[in-house]
């Protein structure tokens, strides 16, 4: 069941989304070699409180932290621990906030210190694939148009698209229908309508797309140990086209 949102609801999602985006900006700016994942989690736990919001992931299906931090071969849902970031790491930072009953969800992958050209290309490609996907989030289109454009671009760079994790509807809950795969066929899937709000979140691997879940029950890593990158935005479908709801104040 896909919930269509009113303009008022979209503006509430955007308020939550802006907190997410401003927090990600700050995190991006303080990430450096020597920063621990636990420090970033502490920031993510405290940040939304000053605005009356709360970290949306904490306690979600018993997730134990306030943010997901996924280093190198970790695809998504990495649990922050005492690990200290080193130059050359790439770290996926996935964050959600609930404000006044509405949710925003966004992710970036940050390069720590000096990163190899191959890793940088993976990160840039994943970011660009999300932008291409967003450009397809238009009324009258199909969900498969989004999926296809992400897959086509990622594979054109010889990377692979994770199959086991997908994007999702979002708004009154963190995860709503429909699932939003990052692979698929143009012209297929549900019709995109004004008032749908989708979290698009390509997860792209350097090697094969297969993933394994680690023994903590959360951490998803590449099966072959290759690097993985992740970017996400919460996007509303409006008459005028896609509207990204997870942008920072400038
Ligand atoms: N952006 C991630 C997702 O949509 C965040 C969920 S992590 C969880 O799957 F910890 F909250 F489950
Ligand atoms: Co999400």
Ordered list of secondary-structure elements with their pairings:
Layout: H1 7-30, H2 37-46, E1 54-55, E2 68-71, E3 74-76, E4 90-99, E5 102-111, H3 117-135, H4 143-156, E6 160-161, E7 167-169, E8 176-180, E9 197-200, E10 203-205, E11 211-213, E12 220-222, E13 228-230, E14 233-238, E15 241-244
Antiparallel strand pairs: 1-4, 2-4, 3-12, 4-5, 6-10, 7-8, 7-9, 9-14, 10-13, 11-12, 14-15
The structure holds 2-amino-4-trifluoromethylsulfanyl-butyric acid and cobalt (II) ion (CO).
Question: What keywords describe this structure?
Answer:
single chain; 250 residues; alpha+beta; Creatine Amidinohydrolase; five-stranded antiparallel sheet; 26% strand; globular; binds 2-amino-4-trifluoromethylsulfanyl-butyric acid; binds cobalt (II) ion
Describe the 3D structure.
The protein is an alpha+beta fold. It has a single domain (7-244), classed as Alpha-Beta Complex (Creatine Amidinohydrolase), CATH 3.90.230. It has helices spanning 7-30, 37-46, 117-135, 143-156, and strands at residues 54-55, 68-71, 74-76, 90-99, 102-111, 160-161, 167-169, 176-180, 197-200, 203-205, 211-213, 220-222, 228-230, 233-238, 241-244. The strands form 4 sheets. Strands 8-7-9-14-15 form a 5-stranded antiparallel beta sheet. Strands 1, 2, 4 and 5 form a 4-stranded antiparallel beta sheet that branches. A 3-stranded antiparallel beta sheet has the order 3-12-11, with no helix packed on it. Strand 7 (167-169) and strand 8 form a beta hairpin. The N and C termini lie far apart (35 Å). The mean pLDDT is 98. The site of cobalt (II) ion has 5 residues, from loops. Cobalt (II) ion (CO) is lined by residues 105, 168, 199, 201, 232.
